[in-house]
Design brief:
The structure is a homodimer of 223-residue chains. With 223 residues, chain A is mostly helical. Helix content of chain A is 83%, strand content 0%.
Chain lengths: 223, 223
């Protein structure tokens, strides 16, 4: 049997590779919304299959490592964290597909003027994913904590998008379907950010051995 | 040390208790929307704390059982399934709170006529949760499969709600904020149903030892 630490390192690498793919899908999905690029949106949909496949592989490898090595303490916590992060990444991939579907719907409608806060939300959301994975690799609780702070900013941007879209729909009935699409784009980005928050909380638990879930100050999402 | 099977049975009971509490919150949240009952909505918010507490306890017990007993094969699969179902239930509790928040917002606005499909979605969604937990307890793959079928019905009802709300918003600009609330109620119910689907898939994996995730036919959610 190969050494446990080697296999754990390989598992870490697979998780980061999956994270990179998910990050690419989020970036492309937002690009397809902003630039009305249907082909880019379709690429995001095609890549979902690979994300799903990676989730199954990482799940299987983690379960196998648990069964064969019966790790305790820190190694056990690390493996259960990988199981959870894996689930979060796969859901983020699904949410990127949701955004890409809205992009196709939007590209088939007249262009809406308002879209100021979507790119801002998107870049903050991507940064949260990158930081949460980086924090996991480095075991950096401070970096993970910075992700929790950003989540409140993302929630504020989502509220701004909602308010803007409600006002637009009341002013221009023709704009309703497109405005609904943009509201759901904002909602999906906010949920992607929530998954980065989950990852960050797992990292803090891993590093400090304390459970911060349900404790940090967290604006309640209204959706 | 107490016998593993006794502790596993206690863990099952805790999970079912949490499931019952989450089911109650979903039911009350929908009631608060339909009957414009702000007090009922606030009860859902207060109960979230208990759901969160139960999640932490079940997580801790499961991790302890994993560490102390180092189970293999079926017992290991059962424990990793409990970890996942626990996460799903906690998220469903969060989504019930989202619905309750929309209920309060709706109760402060003029009553909207349209709300036909929300109670239908809600009762199907509750039934999916009950069936998925029942399937887990009984190890019943057929019952779990019935949950996957219902998920497609829930998605169809959500589409009907969306279409109705878009038409309403285009007709009556004053109804926009309330219609947005109802769209998000439908969206949250659909996501609650998705979590029951996750649980059902875990049950099928547990019983049949095969991974049905990403394989069953599943209408793609547009949101």
């Amino acid at each position: 049997m190969r050494h446990f630490s080697v296999e754990l390192e390989e598992l870490n690498q697979s998780l980061l590779q999956m994270g990179g793919l998910v990050e690419q899908s989020i970036r492309r999905a937002v690009q397809s919304v902003v630039e009305r690029e249907k082909e880019v949106a379709k690429q995001v949909m095609r890549d979902e299959e690979r994300v799903n496949q990676m989730q199954l592989e990482i799940d299987a490898s983690t379960t196998r490592l648990l069964a064969l090595n019966q790790p305790v303490a820190r190694d056990l916590r690390r493996l259960t964290a990988i199981l959870k992060i894996n689930t979060d990444l796969e859901r983020m991939g699904d949410l990127a597909v949701n955004v890409a579907e809205r992009a196709i719907s939007l590209a088939n409608r007249p262009r809406l003027k308002a879209m100021v806060d979507i790119p801002k939300m998107a870049s903050l959301t991507e940064s949260m994913l990158l930081r949460s994975l980086d924090a996991f690799v480095k075991g950096d609780a401070d970096l993970a904590t910075s992700v929790l702070t950003s989540d409140n900013e993302v929630d504020a941007l989502r509220d701004a998008v909602y308010d803007e879209m409600v006002a637009l729909m009341q002013r221009e009935p023709m704009a309703v379907p497109g405005a609904v699409d943009l509201m759901f784009v904002a909602r999906n980005l906010e949920r992607i950010a929530d998954h980065s928050t989950n990852i960050a909380e797992d990292v803090i638990f891993l590093v400090k051995g304390e459970d911060v879930r349900h404790h940090h100050s967290h604006s309640v999402p209204l959706a």
